[in-house]
Amino acid sequence: MFARLFAWLRRHQRPVDLVLMLPFGLMGVLVRSRYVDMTTSGLPREVPLDIHLPLAAAMCLPLIWRRRWPRAVFAILALAALVQWLIGINIAACDFTVMVAMYTIAAQCAFRWALAALLVSELGMAMAIYHLIEQPHPEDTWKSLVPFSIMIGAIWLGGLYISTRRKYTLSLEERARRLERERDAQAEVAAAAERARIARELHDVIAHSISVMVIQADGAAYTVDTDAARARRAMEAIGATGRQALIEMRRMLGVLREDGAATLAPQPGVEQLSDLVEQIRTAGLPVEFEAEGEALSMPPGLELTVYRIVQEALTNVLKHAGPAAAAWVALHYGDRAIEVRIRDDGRGATFSDGRGHGLVGMRERAAVYGGHVSAEPVPGGGFEVIARLPVKEEVKA
User: Fold this and answer.
1) How far apart, in whole angstroms, are the C-alpha atoms of residue 159 and residue 170?
2) pTM: predicted TM-score of the whole model, two decimal places
3) CATH code: domain of residue 324
C-alpha cells in the first residue's frame, strides 16, 4: 500500500506541492505577524493587509515550482524573506517555506548548492534573531538560535539523505537493468550455440535419410521390370524415409547454422543410455537406471535429444551435487510421449546460480520437438530435472 502511495505521489508532484503550499499560505493570511514602527513609539504593530497579503503570496506560491526550479524558487523565497526583514516584520509562518526550498535543493541539487542554501538559511535565522533583540523590550531570544539552527540542520541533512538514497536507488535500478541485459545476451548466445550444435547433429540424420532414398530409388529403377514386388518394397521404403526426413526438416525450420557441415558420424540414442549410465558410474557417481512402459518408435533426432538431456543432467550432478551423492534416472514411455526424470540427493547446487548454459541447451533441444524441461530443487535436498517429449509422428522405414 505504501509503495503504491509513494508511486502515486511521484507521478503527481505538482498537486502535492500545491497541497503543501496551502497550509503555509493559510496560516500566513490568518495569523498576521507584527512589525516595528521606528518612527513612532517603537512598539510592534499589526502588518497592514496591503503589505501582508503580497508578502504571504510571494513566500508561498513559488513552492508549486520547487521541484522544477529548486534554486530559482529558493532565491525568490530568500529575497522575499530579506524584504520582510528590511521592513521590520517578525518571523511568520510563511518563513518556513524557505526551509522547504532549502530541503528541495539539498535533495535534488549538487552539494555545493545544498551547502550554499544551508548557509543562507542560517544567516537569515541569525538576522531574524538580531531583529528581535533590537526591539524595545527584548527577551533572551538568542537562546532560540540554537534550537532553530538544529532544526535547519536536521532538515538539510534530511534532504541530503533523500538525495543519497535516490542516487543509490537509481544505481541499483541501472545495475539491475544492466544485469538483465547481460543475462538475456548470454541466454541468446547460449541458445544460438545450442541451435548450431543441434543443426550439426541432425545434419547426419537428414543426410542419411536422403542417401537411403537415393539408393532405394536406384534399386527400384533396376528391378521394376524383373521383380515388381521388390521394387514395390523399395518404393514403400522411399516413401517412409521421405516422410521421416520431412518431419526432421520441419522441426529444423528457423535453426541457423554457424559453420560448415559436420562430418557424418553415428549419434547415440535411447538404447545407449545404459552405456552412458555405466560411464557415469565409472566416474564415481552411483546411478540407478530404470525404464517403464512399452518402448515407442521414435525418430533418431528425438532419441538423440533424450540422450543429450540425460547426459547433461548427469554431468551437472557430477559437477555440482558434491561428494557422496547418488542419482536416479527414470525413463517412462507413456501414450505417444516419453518422460525422463533425473534426480540426485546432493546439495542441490545444480543450476542454482543461473549462469550455466546446460539448462538453456536442454530446453532448446526439447522445444525443437514440442516438449519442455523443468528443473528445480527437491525438498529435503537434491535437484530434479524432468523432460517431457511428445512422440506424435511415428514413421517406420
Assistant:
1) 16
2) 0.45
3) 3.30.565.10
Residue 179 lies in a domain: no
Average pLDDT for residues 338-345, to the nearest whole number?
Answer: 92
Residues forming a β-bridge with 386: 341, 374
Q: What is the pLDDT of residues 282-334, one digit of tens each?
A: 666 789 999 998 888 888 888 888 988 888 888 888 777 777 789 999 999 98
Joined together, the cell numbers standing for residue 375 give 528443473
DSSP 381: S
- Domain-located, residue 274: yes
- Using alpha carbons, select from 255, 246, 200 the residue that is nearest to residue 367: 255
In the numeric block, the cell 500500500 is attached to 1
pLDDT value of residue 388: 93
Host domain of residue 359: 270-390
Helix (H) or strand (E) holding 246: helix 228-251
Of 113, 139, 165, the domain-final residue: 139
Q: Are 135 and 36 in contact (CB under 8 A)?
A: yes
CA quadruple 95, 97, 101, 107: dihedral positive or negative? Answer: positive
What amino acid occupies position 99?
A: M
Which one, of 210, 213, 214, 207, lies nearest residue 238 by Cα? 213
The answer to whether residue 202 is domain-embedded is no
Q: Which residue has the cell 516584520?
A: 89
Whole-number Å distance between alpha carbons of 124 and 74: 13
**pLDDT tens sequence across 94-151:** 778 888 889 989 988 888 999 999 999 888 888 877 766 555 445 555 666 778 888 8
Report the pLDDT value the prediction gives residue 170, as an integer from 0 to 100. 86
User: Alpha-carbon distance 346 to 328, whole Å?
Assistant: 12
Angstrom distance (rounded) from CA 330 to CA 384: 11
pLDDT greater than 50 at residue 203: yes
Read off the C-alpha cell for 58: 510571494
Given 93, 118, 139, which residue is the final one in a domain?
Answer: 139
Q: How many domains, the chain? A: 2
Taking the alpha carbons at both ends of the chain, their separation in whole angstroms is 65
Q: How confident is the model at residue 336 (pLDDT cuts 50, 70, 90)?
A: confident
The verdict on residue 250 lying in a domain is no
Quick one: how far is CA 239 from the chain centroid?
Answer: 51
Number of alpha carbons in the 13 Å side-chain half-sphere of residue 28: 24
